[in-house]
Fold this sequence. Notes:
- 35% of the residues lie in helices and 18% in strands.
- By secondary structure, it is an alpha/beta fold.
- The protein has a single domain (3-277), classed as TIM Barrel (Alpha-Beta Barrel).
- A hairpin with a 2-residue loop joins β5 (126-127) and β6.
- The longest helix is centred in the middle third of the chain and has 17 residues, at 145-161.
Amino acid sequence: MRVDYHMHLENGPLTLEYLEQFWSHAKKNDIDEIGISEHGYYFQQYENIMEHFVKLMDHDPVIAAWLKDAFLLDLEDYVDLVEEGKNRGWPLKLGLEMDYIPGKEEEIAALIEAYPWDYVLGSVHVLGDWCIDYSPDAGWPEKDINSAYAAYFTALVDAANSGLFDSITHPDLIKIFGHRPSMSLQPFYEEAATALSRSHTCVEINAAGLHKPVGVIYPHPKLLEECLKQQVPITLACDAHWPEHVGRGLDEAIDLAKSIGYTQVATFTRRKIELKPLG
């Protein structure tokens, strides 16, 4: 089965016409099922989860630029749109990509419980008040690379251990701009795989890294090897932000999964997992 469980409607209107473009491009790429997973921070209901960033927007130009369009939409409209697409017979899943914010676990859980998600993606884009993937010029020049990687994987393990999410997205996003640590990452990979396994959380293979400065898929094959050892299921993603990017890199992601030894991919319905043969 060929699925793509990570894509965003942020660059267009919340309309059936725009949503249908994503499914049309999926069909062209022989994809059986897609999941829409907009960033939580675009919605009003997410503002309390990221309240410390809201307070920083007035005097931090990077955060202001990153969140300039945040908290404007209503989750009700988004959920209704995807559900209407399902009712038209399109093989869609209703998802949401939520930033893991330490200390906001109860608020995240409450928002998850309030809507009929098929799955919820957990991501680590921020460490403290630093958005790690916004720009190579924002935060990175003054960072110690080893310390940044250690902090990232600590947050990733905490996100997995929270048990809030169905899959952890782009699980080594920290490498996006090509920064490489001088230390071994194997202990971090092992710890992450253990946390994912114990919390029954999937790991995402995300092809978007192919089109970022790093030029490779997330995550590193060594992390996937550890996940396979601990029987962590995979989800597949191309992380499209435009309809024409649906399925971009999916073949490469599937090839990577198979090269590691994966034979199944996770699918979800109302947060219940089902493993299907990897197509």
